[in-house]
Amino acid sequence: MAEALDNQELAIRMLSHLTPKEKEIVHLKAKGYTYREIADCCKITVYSVNNRFYRLRKRIRELELL
């Protein structure tokens, strides 16, 4: 139970560091959209979607160290 609360607090803390566009793509991915579908919805390239997720994962790793 305590681990679940820690994970929830970490997720909330990380979400507060996202830009509106990052929140949008995370939300779409959580709904099961592919990178291609996310790119189409957001009117960006698949490369941009991949790059944003790469940067998000990097930022999450940095936040976990704090």
Secondary structure layout:
Layout: H1 2-15, H2 20-30, H3 35-42, H4 46-65
Distinctive features:
4 helices; single chain
Overview of this protein structure:
The chain is mostly helical and 66 residues long. Helix content is 80%, strand content 0%. It is built from 4 helices and no strands. Helix 3 crosses helix 4. The model has no long low-confidence stretch (mean pLDDT 83).
Short note summarizing the structure:
The protein is mainly α. Helix content is 80%, strand content 0%. 6% of the residues are buried.
**Low-pLDDT sequence parts:** none
Estimated radius of gyration: 13 Å
Let me know the largest β-sheet: none
Helix vs. strand class: mainly alpha
| Helix-residue proportion | over 70%
End-to-end Cα distance, whole Å, is 22 Å
